[in-house]
Amino acid sequence: MKTKSIFIILFVGIILVACQSKDNATKETKLSFNNPLPVEFGDPYILNASDGMYYMIGTGGVDDGFKMYSSTDLRDWKDEGRIYEGNTDTSWSVANFWAPELYEIDGKFYMIFSADWRENPTNELENFRIGVAVSDSPTGPYKDLYDKPIFDPGYPVIDGNLLFEDDKVYLYYSRCCYKHPVESEVADWAREKGLFDEIEESWIYGVEMEPDFSGIIGEPQLLLRPPVSMDDKQAEWESRSVTSGEVNRRWTEGSYIFKENDTYYMMYSANFFGGENYAVGYAMSTSPLGPFVKADNNPVLEKNVAQGGIVTGTGHNSMTISPDGKKLCVYHGRTSETGDNRVVFIDEMEVTEDGKLVVHGPTTGSDVDE
Hints:
With 370 residues, this protein is mainly beta. 12% of the residues lie in helices and 42% in strands. The radius of gyration is 23 Å and the shape is globular.
């Protein structure tokens, strides 16, 4: 009996040690971010490079160009300084440097970005186009690949995002609201209420692109736009900037696309990027160029002040992968402490077993498990 008791004690001890080890491993791999990060970027994008480093770029930080931060763990970030300078004597870009994204291809690094085009014979107030810069190093310096934008659709465009699939490259972008009034039941409602005479809209398009970024193949396809009817499930949250009387524009912008289980998920932002109602939704398709159907559980990321939080203006997201393989939503927002400055947040996101996309945020430092 004594020998049997000893074996039982040893067995229980082994189980307890194993459980403790599992618990410690869980604690070690559990993600935690002290949101917001100490980075004042709008439109943040993080590249998980082949060297094991994370490189973050975004709107802001320097004039006439872009700067970068780097990290080994997504928590501590090193300021790498300016990586690209536009508005030079030879650049096609002259102002408003927005929404850069970074891609690693065959040992080189390509940055697509939005800026005002120097060629502006009619003196348009918004003359945005999308271009590409390249570097041999992730931290730059980046130089324009061509002395012109990728292409000229005849209207201002921003927020370029790329999808690489097999031997094809797809470009997604947002047509600006500028000089793009659209009739809808929301526009009718705004006129009846005496708020606005017209409502301008931005729409998201997709098009195949030449692999060397020299131009596009075929015609751009309209993929997403704001709802036309007031009883559309998406109309309420996508029209808040109008219905609140804030501004006479409805945005569908800041797209980010990825593929999972043969489904293409396109995340996008709606409402005024400078206001508290900026929020994120998503749509799904079985083809990279649509048709896309907006999800019933939109928005998946929005302000949390009604729930006692301090975050507003959540939007223009991208996605990166954590060191332990989890999907992370990278986005900008504002808090009652940061004021009008846009700052970066990172929160976990997932695609559930039934195919729904869920973002577990916004969180702030006090919300995140340590």
